[in-house]
Each structure stands twice: as structure tokens, then as C-alpha cells.
Design a protein that fits this description.
The complex is a heterodimer of chains A (110) and B (142). Chain A is mostly helical and 110 residues long. Chain A has helices at 16-24, 28-52, 57-75, 84-103. With 142 residues, chain B is mainly alpha-helical. Chain B is 77% helix and 4% strand. A two-stranded antiparallel ribbon of chain B has the order 1-2. Classes of the chains: A mainly alpha (110), B mainly alpha (142). Chain A binds chain B through residues 69, 73, 76-77, 79, 82-84, 87-89, 91-96, 98-99, 102-105, 107-108, and chain B through 1-3, 7-8, 11-12, 14-15, 18-19, 22-23, 25-26, 29-30, 33, 35-39, 41-42, 45, 105, 108-109, 111-112.
Chain lengths: 110, 142
């Protein structure tokens, strides 16, 4: 399978690297955001375990999803990196995790 | 936060406010930076945003009305407790907000492709929790 080259797509500059990757494989941006979410979530677990010797799962998911949404919104600055459906998916996950955090009993200890 | 009837209502109020604020942030970001992608472009998100805004505006009016009703209500003392008849009206009005806000917030689960039967089940759990916690609030006063 031959892929169009960077020049063939009339792309230039470092910011178009992400656009090029997204054109070649549309799941690139969702994968990057998922990895970011995983890193933020894991970091939250480790910091809570180290500081408080216990983990508040709902708070970790809520904070990680919020950070991922902010990164996704920042990605909208460059056209072609992220599409509407991906942004709405990330927003929906954020709303679900934040609602879970607010309605859980653990949030009173946060 | 949701360890009581009052806590559950406040949790849903804050969740609804959070959704409205974040959608407003996304829209303002799109307008200020002239981007072509925003969460409000989704029809269901747009509808949820309008409905949640309306619910939160109605909530303020309901709270003011209930405060006036509570202030006019004479306090009765009986059976080692204070009897405030307006509290039942307050519970009825504010208990409806989690049900209304919950139905709008469940739209975001629907966006993820979850079957409607799951949404109905979650809604039923919320309503059952509200009923039993409302009864506990009236019975114990907490």
C-alpha cells in the first residue's frame, strides 16, 4: 500500500506532521489522546498512593479526563488534527467521569 | 458528596453547571481562535446545553419560591420535633432536578453508543434512590 507523501498533500511545517499522521491513519489523534489520558490517570494513582496511601478512583478518572479534554480543545487550533466526533467523545467521557466523581461517596473525602 | 438526599441534589446541580460551563468554554474558544471544531456542533450536545441552562434558570426561581414558602410557614412543635409543612414541597421540587438533569446528562452516555435500555436502568436507579432518600429525609430530618 502506498501512502501519499508529505509534499504530495501540500503540507509543510512542523505543525502539519500531526495533520499528515491523521490523514494517513484517522485513529492517530484518538490514540495520542488515549495515551495522554492513561499517563495522567496512572500518575494520579501513583501520587495519591504515595501521598495518602489510598486511591480515589473517581477523582483520578475525573481529573485525567478533564486534562485530556483540555488537550483536545487545544488541538482544535490546528485544522485537521482532531475532528468533531473525537472531541464530542472525549467531552462525553469527561462528563460521565465528573458526574461519577460528584455523585460518589468517595468525593466527600477528596 | 452524595451521602445524603441534599448531597445528591447538590451533586447533580454542580454536574449540570459544570457541563454548561465546559460547553461555554469550548464555544468561546472556537469563536476567539476561529477554529472549525466545537462540541456544540453535535446536535444532541447543543440540545442538552439549552435544556440544562433552562433547568438551572428554573432552579433559581424554584429556590426563591421555596424560601418564601418556608418563611411564611408557621413552625409547629409536636412529638419532640419541629414540624415544617413546607419541607414536603421543597423536597418535591428539588427532587425533580436530579431526574431532569440526569435525563440530560444521560445523553452523553447515549453519544458513546450505549443502548437505551441501559440509560433507562440508570434513570430508574436514580429515581429509586431519590424516593428512598427523600423518605429518609422526612422521617429523620437529616
Amino acid at each position: 500500500m502506498t501512502y501519499p507523501t508529505f509534499a504530495e498533500l501540500n503540507l509543510s511545517g512542523a505543525d502539519d506532521i500531526f495533520v499528515y499522521a491523521n490523514i494517513i491513519w484517522p485513529w492517530f489523534t484518538p490514540l495520542v489522546l488515549f495515551i495522554f489520558f492513561g499517563i495522567a490517570l496512572t500518575t494520579s494513582f501513583i501520587v495519591q498512593r504515595r501521598s495518602f496511601q489510598q486511591v480515589n478512583f473517581s477523582a483520578s478518572f475525573a481529573s485525567s479526563s478533564f486534562a485530556t479534554f483540555i488537550v483536545a480543545v487545544a488541538m482544535t487550533l490546528k485544522s485537521g488534527i482532531i475532528n468533531k466526533s473525537t472531541l464530542v467523545f472525549i467531552f462525553s467521557f469527561m462528563v460521565i467521569f465528573v458526574t461519577w466523581f460528584l455523585t460518589s461517596r468517595d468525593s466527600s473525602q477528596a | 458528596m452524595a451521602e445524603s438526599f441534599r448531597g445528591l441534589i447538590i451533586a447533580f446541580i454542580i454536574a449540570a453547571l459544570f457541563v454548561v460551563v465546559m460547553i461555554g468554554f469550548s464555544v468561546n474558544f472556537q469563536v476567539d481562535n476561529n477554529t472549525n471544531v466545537s462540541v456544540i456542533d453535535n446536535a444532541l450536545v447543543n440540545e442538552t446545553y439549552v435544556n440544562l441552562q433552562g433547568s438551572l434558570n428554573d432552579l433559581q426561581d424554584d429556590a426563591n419560591a421555596q424560601q418564601n414558602a418556608t418563611e411564611r410557614d408557621p413552625v409547629l412543635i409536636g412529638l419532640d420535633s419541629l414540624i415544617l409543612t413546607s419541607i414536603w414541597g421543597t423536597i418535591k421540587i428539588f427532587a425533580s432536578f436530579p431526574r431532569i438533569a440526569g435525563s440530560y446528562l444521560l445523553n452523553f452516555i447515549y453519544i458513546l453508543g450505549v443502548p437505551v435500555v441501559v440509560l433507562g436502568t440508570i434513570m430508574a436507579i436514580i429515581i429509586i434512590t431519590l424516593i428512598f432518600w427523600g423518605y429518609k429525609t422526612i422521617r429523620t430530618g437529616q
